From TrEMBL, chain A:
Its main location: membrane. This is L-cystine transport system permease protein. It holds the Pfam family BPD_transp_1. It is found in: Cell membrane. Belongs to the binding-protein-dependent transport system permease family. The keyword Transport applies. Signal peptide: none annotated. The chain crosses the membrane at residues 20-43, 55-76, 96-116, 165-186, 198-216. Residues 19-220 form the ABC transmembrane type-1 domain. It comes from the Bacteria. It is a multi-pass membrane protein. Keywords: Cell membrane, Membrane, Transmembrane, Transmembrane helix, Transport.
UniProtKB/TrEMBL annotation, chain B:
PROSITE patterns: ABC_TRANSPORTER_1, ABC_TRANSPORTER_2. This is L-cystine transport system ATP-binding protein. It is an enzyme of class 3 (hydrolase). It is found in: Cell membrane. Its EC number is 3.6.3.-. Keywords: ATP-binding, Cell membrane, Hydrolase, Membrane, Nucleotide-binding, Transport. Residues 2-239 form the ABC transporter domain. The keyword Membrane applies. Pfam families: ABC_tran. Its main location: membrane.
Amino acid sequence: MKLDPGFIYDAFLQLLSALPMTLLLTGVPAAGGLLIGTGVAFIRHYRVRGLHLIVAGYVAFIRGTPALMHLFLVYFGSPVIIDFFARKLGLDFNSASIPILYYVFLAFSLTAGAYLSEFIRAGLLAVDKGQVEAAYAVGMTALQAFRRIVLPQALAVSLPNMTNVVIGLLHGSTLAFTVTVLEVFGKANIVANQNWKYFEAFIAAAILYWGITILLETASARLEKRINRYHRGGVA
Amino acid sequence: MIQVRGLTKSYGKQKVLGHIDLQLQKGEVTAILGPSGSGKTTLLRCLNFLEKPNAGEIAIGDVTVNCKGAGKRDIHKLRQKTAMVFQNYHLFKHKTALENVMEGLVVVQKLLKADARARSQLMLDKVGLADKQDAYPSQLSGGQQQRVGIARALALNPEVVLFDEPTSALDPERVGEVLEVIRSIAREGITMIIVTHEMAFARDVSNHVVFMDDGAIVEEGPPQELFGSPKEERTRQFLKRMTQEWSYTI
Ligand SMILES: Nc1ncnc2c1ncn2[C@@H]1O[C@H](COP(=O)(O)OP(=O)(O)OP(=O)(O)O)[C@@H](O)[C@H]1O
Ligand SMILES: [Mg+2]
């Protein structure tokens, strides 16, 4: 077997057609995970009664099991649940009408949400209680103090870790291949099969993933610098 | 006017405040003195419910709250009548000096941004920090941070400003600038309660002095009386010790 360097370039161009799907599989769960992670972190930080044990169980389960497992559980499990309730409620609705992609979004969001919640929680702990008291003293409600004072600082602290989660999502998006969603890795497989040039196709895919990863890291480093302006200090 | 009736506070079994009665007139500056652990901070923090009192009644302006059944609404109303200056400043670290002062005006009092900004600049100017409005807390000295804290409290235009040892976390050479600012706003007739260990300052800035010990008010009155001719033995001992310490440090 001989390496065909020219085909790496051809394959790369063909892979670009699947790039939007890979980005979608990264971006949507990142946003969903941030929402879930913030909610979970809030519930655990403030020990919201009745909920905080449940969400602690969720985090422990997700962190204790592989992401592929979450994908399969959601993919095979949620249609059963949805159809059960549709029948119970007498709705004319069948889970088959839900696009596969939605299950993937849900599964990846749940995975990311658990990890993000831990990092956000660490960020919340880094904001001193005094600032919260100061917020209450100027008349803010607990929610206002959380949203305006605590959360921005917590997110700034956890930004490097959150970037790693997003990069994890990018790399983990390859798992969608197993449930027939066509993203970059799946596309690489097809290109490889059609041309019998496996090594070249996967080198092209690797370059693409690596490139996006570098972009994400750069963007995050810039954002971090901007957000953390207030940490510089010592000027006056 | 501020009226406190029968305020009590315990942590578990330990009683920290026992039945406090207190009445302050509008425009009056009240200094609270007392040995460490006597409950001064706790009393101050009960007034804006940073600590929840066990019982009693707090009336500030037109808001009266019965501590026992106080709900979120009551607490929120009470907090809008008060402002607090903390020992460790507690500025919002991710916001500039100006944004720190504006925050309550925009978020709580719902002022327009432009109005809030103008008012906040005025306040920063009042504490002598007009040129530092864009600095973050980490870029300010302790004294400057505390002056921002004072501007943040004043901007709210509260019925009463609560000060908890505003200078005790400062380097000695920074104490003067903060006391000077407090002195100048006292002259404007803003109602204040100041917990302090600065005896000389308490004596000349206040109209009313309260001496606490062991979770109770031992004695109160005008500064000339309380410092000049204290009636209670405990007050005499405390003042003697404090003035001795004071003269040692000189
Ligand atoms: N969160 C708490 N839990 C338990 N006990 C507390 C708590 N906060 C204060 N106390 C106790 O309440 C008493 C009064 O404390 P407080 O801080 O009000 O005193 P203080 O007069 O402000 O003292 P200082 O001059 O040292 O600031 C002290 O005995 C203290 O140990
Ligand atoms: Mg104290």
